[in-house]
Automatic annotation (TrEMBL):
It comes from Pyrobaculum aerophilum. This is Major facilitator superfamily (MFS) profile domain-containing protein. Keywords: Membrane, Transmembrane, Transmembrane helix. It holds the Pfam family MS_channel_1st_1. Residues 88-281 form the Major facilitator superfamily (MFS) profile domain. InterPro entries: MFS_dom (IPR020846), MSC_TM_helix (IPR008910).
Length: 281
């Protein structure tokens, strides 16, 4: 019955054999890439451990966060290197198969994007490591340069530098992974503003309390107010490209400002009364 359709069994058999051979070769390419990637990944893993880079990274704040999350630096980088080599092998294998039609176009697009994705993750990881080591080194220099009473200023500058460099690395990695859009960069900017505000508020209020203990009772209100200010500014930056949301945030900010002013009235009155009593005494 199949002969009625004019099937060329010889050609069909040759096509099956040809496609089968291509599939086997593609699988071999991926397996070879996996083997090479595993060797390179293990070598990088051992290199990081023996050079002491991992120990130096573990002493930084970012490294401590990695350890707390159960992430081993050398293993992570080794796995990423292995994954990158395997992805390259997959791209080569898919290119060798030469899949046609719309499916081929889709596969080609995926194959073209995979190296960007893994490369962006590697860049992000390596960038975080370098940023952590650099800011830790700069922080030690700044701590040594500032007098003891201004050590917190050095720590503040180190934390601000850490936030800024992390934002830079994240933006570069997102560009590499093609994660772009109207919300990406405002989101990074807003996050930086909020993070910087937290560090600034904490450091400034702590220094004020140390120099002027009489303001200790007002410290929680001041810290809360500083956090709110930077939070509103950060949210405004994040939703800057969305006028309606920005307008809502602006109205909320005005409401918070009025509420904060009302809350500060009894605090200011209490402090003024206390200072007046001390002046009379």
């Amino acid at each position: 019955m199949l002969l009625q359709f004019g099937i060329d069994w010889g050609q069909l058999l040759r096509d099956i054999i040809a496609y089968g051979i291509q599939g086997i070769i593609a699988i071999i390419i991926i397996l070879v890439a996996w083997a090479i990637g595993s060797v390179i990944g293990r070598a990088v893993n051992k290199l990081i451990e023996r050079t002491g880079l991992e120990k130096a990274f573990d002493r930084t704040d970012v490294g401590k966060a990695f350890r707390a999350a159960g992430i081993d630096l050398s293993n992570l980088i080794g796995m990423l290197i292995t994954a990158f080599v395997v992805v390259i092998g997959i791209v080569v294998a898919l290119g060798y198969l030469r899949i046609g039609g719309e499916a081929g176009v889709l596969v080609a697009q995926v194959a073209e994007y995979l190296p960007r994705l893994i490369g962006g993750i590697i860049l992000l990881t390596a960038g975080l490591i370098l940023v952590a080591l650099l800011t830790d080194y700069i922080g030690k220099l700044l701590t040594g340069l500032f007098p003891k009473q201004f050590v917190e200023i050095g720590e503040l500058l180190r934390n601000l530098l850490l936030i800024g460099l992390i934002a830079l690395i994240v933006s570069i990695a997102l560009d590499l992974m093609l994660f772009t859009g109207p919300l990406v960069y405002p989101l990074i900017l807003g996050t930086v503003i909020i993070g910087a505000g937290i560090f600034i508020g904490h450091t400034v209020v702590r220094n004020i309390i140390e120099d002027h203990p009489e303001f200790a009772s007002a410290a929680p209100y001041a810290k809360f107010l500083v956090y709110l200010i930077f939070l509103m500014v950060g949210l405004g930056a994040i939703f800057a490209n969305f006028p309606q949301a920005a307008h809502v945030i602006q109205n909320v900010a005005w409401g918070i400002a009025i509420a904060a002013a009302v809350l500060l009235i009894p605090v200011i009155y209490t402090l003024a009364k206390k200072m007046a009593g001390e002046a009379k005494g």
